[in-house]
Amino acid sequence: MNLWQQIKPNTLINMDYDQSFSMPKPHAHYTVELNYVHEGLLNYEYTNSEGNLVSESLTAGQFMIFKPFVPHRIERIAMPTRLCVLELYLNQKNADIITFLSNSEYVKRLPATQSLLETFTDVLYMIDNRKVGNILDELLSLLYDKTHNCHDEFFEASYELMLKKLLLEISQCKRNEMRQLGNKHTRNAAAFIRANYNKNIGLTDIAAHVGMSPQYLQRIFKQTYGETVVNTLLRYRVEKARTLLTQTDLPVSAVASRVGYSKLHSFSAVFKKYHALSPSEFRSAQKHKGFNYSLYYDTEGIHDDEEFTPPPHKRNIILIFPLCGFS
């Protein structure tokens, strides 16, 4: 299927929020909405299909997906937060985007993904144990760049590839989540990495923490997460470094120190392995600090944002205008 012809973006957000942010009233819309927290902590409220008001907190590395027409709002920003939001809708009248994806030929070849979509009610709440945040960042950047280059011959192919990859990573997150429920050792190892990535730790330290041999931990960890303990530690450090490089003006040496590297050349080598750029080159390549695009298509009576107060920001620029080429 050609996803660009079928599934359109409606709202794109990559912003820093602080505690003065206000969203007094819940809103509901016909789009499916992915909210991903890169840094910080915030609280959501939503009304489920049984009419109950539910509260959930999201912290760094967690995300929520709201089905169309689920009333929700950000209740409170508990601490400075970097939030990414992607809203998508189906370019067909009176059609459901979740059902469309579930019945697509691509998803039919992925039983776990199809099952996830078919059992999706109201909200999905997950911890990113894969690379959802990275892919979402790439997809938002691709759509951002679309506003500046409407004639990119590779855009539609890239868009479709990233959407499929995002869907696949979310499904694998759910699979890993189910596997983790039965293995406290891998859960503890992953939690230890998240809490101590900025220290001089390695496989031996992590294995000692969970009371297992390094070799055995490596094996069961890879069975659970699809990657080794060491690769998970390296990837997590690089993800944190990405945030520091794009969201702060810290020297590269200070960034390296904050993500657990005492030697700059070691940090640079690992970072380049993941991004094919040195940390300095990666920082220079970032063209934008933040954005908030709202693209409304036939939304009269659906998107009621009169009470919405735009978030304060530091170096971010709020832009609200249609992306070229989206009509």
Could you characterize what this model shows?
The chain is α+β, with helices and mostly antiparallel strands. The protein folds into 2 domains: 3-180 and 288-294, Jelly Rolls (Sandwich); 184-285, Arc Repressor Mutant, subunit A. It is built from 13 helices and 7 strands. The protein has helices spanning 3-6, 97-102, 105-108, 111-118, 132-146, 155-180, 184-196, 203-210, 214-225, 229-247, 252-258, 264-275, 279-285; strands spanning 7-17, 32-47, 53-59, 62-66, 72-90, 123-127, 291-294. Strands 1, 2, 3, 4, 5, 6 and 7 form a 7-stranded antiparallel beta sheet that branches. Helix 7 packs parallel to helix 10 and helix 10 (229-247) crosses helix 13. The radius of gyration is 20 Å and the shape is globular. The two termini are 19 Å apart.
**Helix proportion:** 40-55%
How many beta-strand segments? 7
Assign the CATH class of the largest domain.
Answer: Mainly Beta
**Which structural category fits the helices and strands?**
alpha+beta
> CATH homologous superfamily name of the largest domain?
Jelly Rolls
Low-pLDDT runs of 5+ residues are 296-327
CATH topology of the largest domain: Jelly Rolls
Radius of gyration: 20 Å
Features of this protein?
single chain, seven-stranded antiparallel β-sheet, globular, Jelly Rolls, 13 helices, 327 residues, 2 domains, alpha+beta, Arc Repressor Mutant, subunit A, disordered C terminus
